[in-house]
Every structure is written in C-alpha cells, then in structure tokens.
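Hi R.,

As promised on Friday, here is the backbone we talked about, encoded as structure tokens. Could you run it through your design pipeline when you get a chance and send me back a sequence?
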C-alpha cells in the first residue's frame, strides 16, 4: 500500500520549472515488462524546436521509452511531461493531433490506398477534406510516393515506410516522434527526410525525437541521447559528445561510452559533465518552482475528455466499411457462413433415413398379419431386407444391419388367439409377438427404430380393428403434445441453440481477429497516439459489427423459418433482440480474448477450444438435464445456456418476456455483456 501510495505521489508530483523550454522531459523514468526492467531511472530532455536523436543498441528500450512518451504505455515510476503536461492528461492533445507518431511497425491498413490512409488520419485529426488534400499532395511529392490510388498492400517495403511517415507528418504536428523512419529507405530519400526535419524545426515550433540505427545520420540532430540498458549514457549536441570522447565519429564516441559504462561503476558515472554534455544522469538544467496550477483540470475539460468523439467513431466506421468493400470475399463469407452453418444443422439433424433392418419372416400363410404389419413400417426411414435367420444374425454381428425383426411360423394365428381368447398359454403369447434384436451402439438409431415399430403397430391395429383398436392398445396413452410435435424428430431442438452459438462465435472470431491483428501490426497504438480512445474504438467496432450481425440474423431467420420451416409460435421481435444481444455478448467476449492474447494463433486456439465444450455444456446439442451435478452449475452460468432455453421457449412455446425462462435469458446475456466489457477494460489497463 505504502509503495503504491508513494508511486502515485511520485507520478503526480509536479515537474520542476524550466520545462517550457523543453518539448519532452523525462525524470527518473522506470518501466518494466514483468521482471524485465527496461527503463531504469532514465532522464532525458528534448529541447523545444530541435531534433533529438535517440541512439542505442537493439533492445536497449528506445521504443519502450517512445511509447511511454506518447502515452500508450504507463511508466511504473518517475515523471514525463510532453509539451508541458503528462501524456494522456485530460484536455491535453498528447496523444492527439499535437503529436505525429511513426511507430516501428508499418501500422498501415493494407486494404487502404495511400489516399484512404491519409484521409483516415486527417479525419481523426479534424482536418477538412481540403486541408487533407493539400497536405496529401505535398507529402506524395515530398516523399516520392506513387499515385494516391495505389493500394498499400501493393507498395514496396520502402514505399510503405514512407506512407507511414506521411501519416505522421500529415497534420503538421508540434511534436514528431519517429521510431526508425529511415530503415529500408534509400540514401537519397533518407537525406531528404533529414533535410525536411531540419527545415521544419527551424520555425522553432516543431520538435522531433527520432531513433535510428544509422548512428552517423544523427549528426544532423541538434541533440543526441546515447542509451544503453534503459539509461542514457550521454546527452548533448553531437559535436560536443564526439569532442568529449575525442572521437571523430558519433559511432566511435558511442562505442567508447559503452566501454566506459561497462568498466566504470555508478558513482563515477555520475561525475559532473564537461562541455555541456550530460553523462549518465542527464536531467540537470532545471529550476525549481512546481507547476501544480498548470496540472489542475477544470471538471468540464475532464468531462469532455471522458466523452466519446463521434468524429473518431465515424472515422473508424468508415475505415471498417472501406476495408470490407475492398475485401468482398471476406464480406461474403461473413454473411454466408452463418447461413451455411445453419443449413448444415437443419439438413443433418432429423430422422435417420434408410436404416437397414433384417426381416426374418417364418410365416408361410397368405395373407399373413406379419406382412400386413410390416407394410405399415415407414419405408423412408427403415429399409427392410428379407433374410434367413442365419443370414440376418450374421449380418447384424457384422454391422450390416441395425436390427433383426423376426416373426414365428404361427404368428398370425397365435396373435389372433391372443386377441380373442381370454386365457392363452405362454407359448401363444411368445409366438404371437414380434421379436426384435437391436444394435444399440447408436442410440439415436435404436430409439428411432423402436419408435417406428410402435408407430407401425399402432397404424396396423387402427387399420384392422377400427373402433375396437383400443382393446389391444397399451394402457398408457400419449395425448396430443402441449408444445411441439409428436410425429417427427426434427432439427427443432438444436436450431435455436445452433443459431445463437453461430451468432456468438462469429462475433467472437471477428472481434478477436480485428483487435489482435491491429494491435500486432501497431495500428491500435497509432490510432491511440492520434487521439483515439479505447472506448471509441470499441463503440465503432460495435456499430459496424451490428450492421454485419443484422444481415446475418436476417439471413439466418429466412433459412430457419422459411426454408427449413422450423416452427415459431413466438414474437419475431423478441427473437431478433435476443440474437442481437447474443452477438454483442460475442463481441464483448472477443474483447476479453484480444486483451489477453497477443497473436492470432493463440486467439484462434482460444476460440476453437471454447467452442466444443460450450456446445455440450450450453445444452445446445444435448439436454442440460444430462449433465451431472456439480458440472450442471457450470453449465447454467455459461453465456449460451439460458439464452438458448429462452429462445426455445419463445419459438416453441410462444412465451413472452413475462415468463421467467424468457426474461432470464435476456438478463443473463446482458449480465455477461457487462462483465466481459469490464473485464476487458481492467485487463487492458493492467497490461498498459
Ligand atoms: N510487450 C513486451 N513484453 C515483454 N517484453 C518486451 C515487450 N516489448 C519490449 N520488450 C522487451 O523490452 C526490451 C526493450 O525493447 P524495445 O523495443 O524498447 O527496444 P529498442 O531499443 O526499441 O530495440 P530496437 O532498436 O531493436 O527496436 C527488449 O528486451 C524487449 O524484448
């Protein structure tokens, strides 16, 4: 607790004065990934209106530092101010339009054209289309880009990097943060980029921090910072750094610094720097008075900061639709996959057909009751094969037949005796019975055969005995069902759960992939730095997904109700709302998965791993009543169980919201939604 409180106080403590002369100030900044300490009491100062070259070996923490500066990563200790305030301070435009950020990854939408890319970022920064157009023309010319209608995915690696740089320069930001902008760029263009940076800082209004692996090109920077193991070894004008180390190149000076830092111990490193270069702990040049006042925020500004910007949401939605337009195959699949899945369910679940059954009929009499009885068997389901006793039993043992039905030699006469005489012997009862052997390895088929034989017997008795049929009927009578149909086994049981799980998993898959891929490609970070908030991204994704979900639901219901004629006794409005809610639950669960996993392979494995247990535990393909306790309790809290039950109640019982089994389904799905959104937000915050 104490440690936390100290850390909070540390973070909130005002920075010393003098910071107005600096675009960026970092003091005692620490940041770790788990146990790996990446930034280690780092001090750094980027003067206003100058180029700062941040140099250091791979893995020393440059990108991590830049991410902390733009506010996409939180620091664990220390202070950072960017253009006078901490990053992500309410009402501050960092992240936002004051900063242009080019991340190390390309962070571009492959399906966009160059024009789409710049228009997208222009929209986020609130540029008018005229302003965007003017900047676009300049940048295309300056960065030597191909036609603006060229698709990003068709550009070369170097061209893509230049488009990425163009996106960072677009809104003429006050602060440019460029993470290795010259990698993969030819020397002529590299020198042109540096020339441009030198030109734009001349106004004194733009500051630049740039990382590069080409140490010598950083001589054009006004100040360089040499970083190693999460600390700055030295900071100062390039000439001063070289002079101090009697080096003719920056690279040489850097190598010397590394050697010195390896050999020397800390107290020595902190000795006072000559020549205006600042070694080891270069956060000096500051006065004292606190700037507490400047850090106070009006509640109106805070409230405005909390509200979503519709401009950003619109920009993101347009982005999604432009991408979908460029990927018609993917859009078609998104619409048609649910239809294909439900078609498979409705076609494949139902009465088994063509079940081969061996008939051993020992009756020679004609006309015989056995033949008449067999004629009532449903021939579309049961395929009768007449065989001898031996062939029939060999066949069933070899898996050729699902059952053997036998009739004794005197079946007809014995059956009549059974019906007519009051007292008959066991032999007559036995001889007047149909004997059936079943292969019950497939219980669905065995149940179906039993049912078909009972139906055949009932139809035979009704046909032959008419009004007297009741005399031989079982003393158990099944009346007309209250709900559902007695006659046919159909896909009715499975369809509601299948439809809901299709909506649920489609939404999980699309959401997870969208966010995981965008984060992996650096697009999320780039959008955040442009000023986009995470809930704006979630809202934009939700709105665009709702469009896709709506089309999917319309197509699903057309298939279910009109093509496969699954009965519906209830309100179509309730069915649609429940399906939409289930889709939204899928979106929020997708957010949870994408906040936990970092690559698409793990994401897909997570979704695939959850799919099958959920089908069974959710009571979608097999009744929940079969699940033993205490697993039943797990089943009941799953997102699909009560919603599936609710949908069945609406469709087959015609129930409305006044029934507990219906409103419980709605309540559970809303509860899951809220829980998933909160969980995803907490995980994302913890992972920052
Ligand atoms: N998300 C992360 N989780 C765990 N470790 C990370 C993460 N990001 C970076 N690291 C580790 O932090 C260290 C610093 O990484 P960083 O990307 O900041 O280095 P860098 O100086 O920018 O390297 P390069 O010049 O190669 O881009 C590396 O050891 C890296 O493996």
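Update: got your reply. Pasting your designed sequence below so it's all in one thread:
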């Amino acid at each position: 607790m104490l440690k936390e409180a100290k850390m909070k106080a540390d973070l909130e403590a005002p920075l010393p004065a003098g910071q107005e002369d600096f675009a960026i100030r970092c003091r005692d900044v620490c940041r770790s990934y788990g146990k790996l300490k990446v930034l280690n009491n780092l001090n750094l100062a980027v003067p206003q209106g100058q180029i700062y070259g941040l140099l250091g070996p791979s893995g020393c923490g440059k990108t991590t530092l830049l991410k902390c500066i733009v506010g996409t990563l939180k620091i664990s200790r220390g202070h950072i101010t960017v253009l006078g305030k901490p990053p992500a301070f309410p009402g501050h435009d960092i992240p936002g339009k004051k900063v242009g950020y080019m991340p190390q990854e390309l962070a571009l939408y492959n399906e966009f054209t160059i024009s789409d890319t710049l228009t997208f970022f222009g929209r986020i920064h609130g540029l008018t289309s005229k302003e965007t157009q003017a900047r676009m023309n300049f940048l295309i010319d300056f960065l030597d880009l191909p036609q603006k209608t060229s698709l990003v995915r068709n550009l070369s690696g170097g061209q893509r990097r230049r488009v990425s740089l163009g996106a960072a320069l677009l809104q003429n930001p006050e602060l440019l943060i460029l993470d290795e902008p010259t990698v993969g760029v030819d020397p002529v263009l590299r020198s042109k980029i540096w020339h441009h940076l030198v030109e734009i800082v001349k106004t004194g209004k733009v500051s630049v921090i740039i990382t590069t692996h080409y140490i010598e090109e950083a001589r054009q920077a006004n100040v360089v910072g040499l970083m190693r193991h999460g600390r700055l070894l030295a900071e100062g004008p390039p000439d001063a750094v070289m002079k101090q180390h009697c080096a003719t190149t920056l690279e040489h000076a850097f190598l010397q610094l590394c050697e010195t830092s390896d050999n020397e111990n800390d107290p020595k490193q902190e000795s006072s720097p000559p020549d205006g270069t600042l070694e080891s702990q270069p956060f000096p040049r500051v006065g004292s008075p606190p700037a507490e006042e400047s850090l106070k925020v009006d509640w109106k500004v805070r409230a405005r900061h909390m509200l979503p910007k519709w401009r950003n949401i619109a920009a993101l939605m347009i982005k999604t639709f432009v991408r979908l337009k460029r990927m018609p195959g993917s859009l078609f699949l998104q619409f048609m996959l649910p239809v294909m899945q439900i078609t498979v369910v409705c076609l494949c679940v139902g009465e088994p057909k063509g079940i081969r059954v061996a008939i051993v009929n020992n009756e020679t009499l004609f006309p015989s009751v056995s033949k008449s009885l067999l004629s009532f068997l449903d021939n579309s389901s049961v395929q009768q094969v007449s065989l001898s006793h031996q062939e029939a039993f060999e066949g069933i043992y070899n898996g050729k037949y699902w059952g053997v039905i036998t009739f004794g030699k005197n079946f007809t006469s014995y059956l009549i005796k059974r019906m007519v005489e009051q007292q008959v012997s066991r032999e007559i009862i036995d001889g007047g019975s149909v004997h059936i052997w079943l292969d019950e390895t497939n219980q669905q088929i065995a149940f179906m055969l039993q049912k078909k034989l009972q139906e055949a017997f009932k139809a035979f008795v009704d046909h032959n005995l008419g009004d007297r049929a009741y005399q031989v009927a079982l003393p158990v009578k099944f009346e007309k069902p209250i709900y559902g149909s007695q006659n046919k086994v159909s896909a009715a049981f499975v369809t509601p759960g299948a439809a809901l799980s299709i909506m649920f998993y489609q939404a999980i898959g699309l959401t997870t992939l969208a966010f995981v891929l965008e984060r992996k490609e650096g697009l999320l970070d780039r959008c955040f730095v442009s000023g986009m908030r995470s809930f704006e991204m979630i809202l934009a994704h939700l709105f665009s997904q709702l469009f896709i979900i709506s089309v999917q639901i319309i197509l699903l219901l057309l298939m279910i109700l009109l093509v496969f004629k699954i009965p519906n006794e209830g309100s179509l409005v309730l069915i649609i709302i429940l399906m939409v809610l289930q889709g939204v639950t899928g979106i929020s669960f997708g957010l949870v998965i994408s906040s936990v996993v970092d690559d698409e392979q793990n994401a897909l494995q997570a979704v695939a791993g959850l799919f099958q247990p959920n089908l069974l535990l959710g009571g979608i393909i097999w009744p929940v009543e079969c699940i033993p306790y205490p697993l039943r309790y797990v089943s009941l809290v799953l997102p699909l169980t009560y919603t599936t039950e609710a949908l069945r109640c609406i469709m087959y019982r015609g129930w409305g919201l006044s029934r507990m089994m219906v409103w419980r389904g709605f309540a559970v799905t809303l509860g899951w939604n809220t829980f998933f959104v909160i969980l995803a937000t907490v995980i994302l915050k913890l992972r920052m």
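One thing I noticed while checking it: The chain has three domains: 2-98+173-286+299-307, 312-346+491-687, 355-472.

Thanks again,
M.
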